Amino acid sequence: MKKNISSQGFTLVEIMIVVVIIGLLAAMAIPAFQKVRTSSQDKAVLNNARQMAAAADQYFLENGVSTVSQGNLVGASNYVKALNLVANETYPASFTQGVTITVAGIAGARTVTYAP
Q1: Measured between alpha carbons, how far is residue 34 from residues 7, 27, 29, 31, 57 in Å?
Q2: Where are the alpha helices (DSSP H) in the chain?
Q3: Each residue's pLDDT tens digit in the chain (116 positions)?
Q4: Which pLDDT does position 2 carry in this prediction?
Q5: Beta strand pairing status for 110-114 and 101-106?
Q6: What is the C-alpha to C-alpha distance for residues 53 and 98, in angstroms, rounded to an integer?
Q7: SS3 assignment for 44-72
Q8: CB neighbour list of residue 94: distance below 8 Å, 6 or more residues apart
Q9: What pLDDT score does 7 carry?
């Protein structure tokens, strides 16, 4: 009389197949997440540039000038309370009425422009 021995658990081949499938799914998902992150950073930087342009426009109207330094716009008692950096970007040191704002060095590689 033979004993029927049933094996419980997974074979090495089955485990390897699952690991390969998970690796393939991760390889497809990571670039998509990176693209979303890049897009999100660019939108946040563009929003900051819009706020700075609006603050500069208000400063121009109130003071009758056509150029303002960033220090006169950002601060606890100024038009923009705080300029929170998103990806180590660099905003212009001064703003001139009607001139396009260029924000450079977004994540060390990208540039965003905003034309007020």
Answers
A1: 43, 12, 9, 5, 35
A2: 12-63, 70-73
A3: 655 666 678 899 999 999 999 999 999 999 989 999 999 999 999 999 999 999 999 999 999 999 999 999 999 999 999 999 999 999 999 999 999 999 999 998 999 999 98
A4: 58
A5: antiparallel
A6: 9
A7: HHHHHHHHHHHHHHHHHHHHCCCEEEHHH
A8: 67, 68, 69, 70
A9: 64
Would the CA dihedral through 9, 10, 11, 16 be positive or negative? negative
Which tokens belong to 64? Answer: 């009758």
Side chain identity, residue 107: A
What gap in Å lies between CA 38 and CA 42, rounded to an integer? 6
Nearest to 104 by CA among 94, 92, 116, 86: 92
pLDDT of 116: 80
Q: What is the dihedral of CA 40, 41, 46, 49, to 10 degrees?
A: 150
Closest CA to 91 of 76, 106, 109: 106
Report whether 105 contacts 114 (CB < 8 A): no
What end-to-end distance do the CA atoms of the chain give, in Å?
89
